[in-house]
Amino acid sequence: xxTLKRTKIKALxxxxxxGEVLAKGWVRTKRGNKQVKFIALNDGSTINNIQVVADMExxxxxxxxxxxxxxxxxxxxxxxxxxxSGQAVEIQAREIEVFGxxxxxxxxxxxxxxxxEYLRTVAHLRPRTNTFGAILRIRHAMxxxxxxxxxxxxxxxxxxxxxxxxxxxGAGDMFQVTTLxxxxxxxxxxxxxxxxxxxxxxxxxxxVSGQLEGELGATAVGEIYTFGPTFRAENSNTPRHLAExxxxxxxxxxxxxxxxxxxxxxxxxxxxxYALDHCMDDLRFLNDKYDNGLIERLHSVLGIxxxxxxxxxxxxxxEKAVAExxxxxxxxxxGTDFQSEHERYLVEKYFGKPVILTDFPKxxxxxxxxxxxxxxxxxxxxxxxxxxxxxIGGSEREASLEKLEGRIAELGMSRKxxxxxxxxxxxxxxxxxxxxxxxxxxxxFVTGMANIRDVIPFPRTPKNAEF
Length: 467
Ligand code: ATP
Ligand code: MG
What we know:
Largest sheet: 8 strands, mixed
Bound molecules: adenosine-5'-triphosphate, magnesium ion
Strand content: 15-25%
CATH architecture of the largest domain: 2-Layer Sandwich
Number of helices: 13
Number of domains: 2
CATH superfamily of the largest domain: Bira Bifunctional Protein, Domain 2
Strand order of the largest sheet: 6-10-11-16-15-14-13-12
Distance between the termini: 36 Å
CATH topology of the largest domain: BirA Bifunctional Protein, domain 2
Shape: elongated
CATH class of the largest domain: Alpha Beta
Helix content: 25-40%
Structural class: alpha+beta
């Protein structure tokens, strides 16, 4: 068996019959009778299994008993055309080696219960299911496509720090990073924690956004993007929030809000198209198993222009909906931040397509957003998607030193940790824009999964950090 090189199952399934092959993988199922056994083998290279046909005259009863769901095997044999339906080729086994047995009585994936909720409790093994195999491959394809997209446009991939003293606009509650002994915390004269004794000599946390550092890159090399983990101590247990998620944050010098919207729209359409072009087997599986509208919905966002609407106009639409009896749980009026139900009403009921909201009241958005002439709104933009709500948040940034400083003062923010950021406006300031795409929110859309815990291998949520 050793002289023959292993071929991945994805490649075998695309081959013409003929010749001797070596496949390795995990058993999905075994069926058959006394004369012949059919083994469905999967190695993760594709959602599809290869059928291994084992003639019982050739194989020892004891060996065949060990071929159970979850066991790992090497199979050498002839690649032949298959008479059974469902596959073009199969392997007529000559030799089978069991690498690792898998006790059917103890294997957690043997259980009848394969609900997504159950699988979350066995997240260490769920990558072996068809569903999570598909999700992991799509997740990879989307990560690859993101780098491809920006690389083709000449953007520089910038690594922004994960440990930081900046709270980036207060985007979310932060996880503190410390090496202080929690049983013996050093205090200063006033009785406050003495962070000068801590590892970095100051109070530090895990990043909630790489944007502020991203702006440093954009105002130097023009166009950058970050793609890394982001941490928010979100205590909201929603199907759309994780405590650890991945974010893509492009930041571009010389882009105004229009350029920013165009890029965001082109970007998500590129990713959806990439998924349709490269992940069709996996998408079809998810479409059939979980969400019959998935593939149609993916196609539907490609052909149309996203609706661009100001916040003010959206409030009018929502207020009219309330007057007409639409039962929203949360109130809506000018000045409130929209809830997911409002976003979904706009996208799914009113416009029937993705929506880009712009020009928000300044009080519900961060200090760095470009201030409009009206004195009450800022040039923010949120991209809203069907079934998900907000998938992207961004803005044109305030480029004027005076206005930025004015806003910082107005909000009573401490400038102590912000001088480095303000320097971008002090020295050669330029108009610039950027946005953040939540990677798992994108994956919710692309896979059709309903819960964000099911599109990341090891979800971190309140009271859950296993593995
Ligand atoms: P939301 O209102 O949904 O909490 P946000 O306004 O806090 O979002 P931003 O700070 O604009 O979000 O972050 C940019 C993007 O990051 C969001 O559009 C979303 O796709 C994603 N995102 C934000 N928070 C989370 C989270 N806790 N888990 C997963 N993705 C998130
Ligand atoms: Mg939030």
